Amino acid sequence: MTSRVDLHIHTTFSDGLHTPTEIVEMSRAEGLSVISISDHACVDGVPEAIQAAAGTQVQVVPGVEISTEGDGLELHILGYFVNHASPKLRTALSRIQDLRLERAKEMLTRLRALGLAIPLEQVQELAGHGALGRPHLAMAMVEAHFVSSAQEAFQRYLGSDRPAYVPRSKTTPADAFRLIRAAGGVPVLAHPWRMTQMLPGLVAKGLMGLETYYTGYSPEMTNYLVELAHRYHLVCTGGSDFHGLTLLPNNRLGQVHVPLECLEPLRDRHRLLVEAT
Predict the structure, then answer these.
(1) Structural domains counted in the chain
(2) Is 164 a member of any domain?
(3) Which domain holds residue 149?
(4) Is there a domain that residue 163 lies in?
(5) 202 and 227: one domain?
(6) Does residue 22 contact residue 111 with C-beta atoms inside 8 Å?
């Protein structure tokens, strides 16, 4: 059964396959009432989604996802109800996008050393106006017939323990928390199952929420995460992490049941942050 809420969706403004307008149309078809456009290091797709949703049953929560590193682990931080017009936020995200480009160039160099030459221009064309990422490299590899699917590209070359992988820049979770909160947003730890031991330190640094409902999480996993969220006074959120079925076939739009009741605590935290600034 399709959920009415999906707070983790990517578009062509980062590494998704569908435009914000298409996402809104698909959400309407799926019966979703609340969605969040949470592109990687980019909020440029939010205005298009809001415009496309005007006059429909779909409400768009402005969001963003920022990749960070803490204690040697890669952590993704979601930000909800961010002021997507904030000059400070947009400038900081632009710097992160520049770092993503440099990372992509280094991965292309490693692929070339493995005999898999792909022009940067091809990858940039696939990325379009979005934040360039590994999925764009994977799509370019498929186009060049080096692999049969994006999944194979990650499994053989681009995954975190594969030969063409390049670690991200050292943006810390605390950096992401400060940036999101300064823009009135609520910072949430994405797909947190393997990072629960870090929660006390992350909460102390400014974490305000936990993505307790996520693709592939069993009821037992979800219940445990909800318990942790309550223990640390974190809001619960959830979503599919939809990029497009060609890219991630197991992450279907609206497939994760996210209780509508999650929205009000999230709004309350947002209001408190805005009032405090």
Answers:
(1) 2
(2) no
(3) 94-158
(4) no
(5) yes
(6) no
Quote the tokens at residue 76: 């993704």
Question: Cβ contacts of residue 9 below 8 Å, gap of 6+?
Answer: 16, 23, 35, 36, 37, 38, 239, 240, 241, 242, 253
pTM, entire model: 0.86
Domain annotation covers residue 166:
no
Dist. CA 37–CA 44, nearest whole Å: 10
103: amino acid identity, one letter = R
Digits of tens for pLDDT over the chain (277 positions)? 456 999 999 999 998 999 999 999 999 999 999 999 999 999 999 999 999 999 999 999 999 999 998 888 889 999 999 999 999 999 999 999 888 889 999 999 999 999 999 999 999 998 887 778 898 999 999 999 999 999 999 999 999 889 999 987 778 999 999 999 999 999 999 999 999 999 999 999 999 999 999 999 999 999 999 999 999 999 999 999 999 998 889 999 999 999 999 999 999 999 999 998 7
In this structure, the answer to whether residues 182 and 246 fall within a common structural domain is yes
Q: CA of 89: how far to CAs of 92, 243, 245, 248, 266, in Å? A: 5, 23, 30, 28, 20
Q: Is residue 89 part of a domain?
A: no
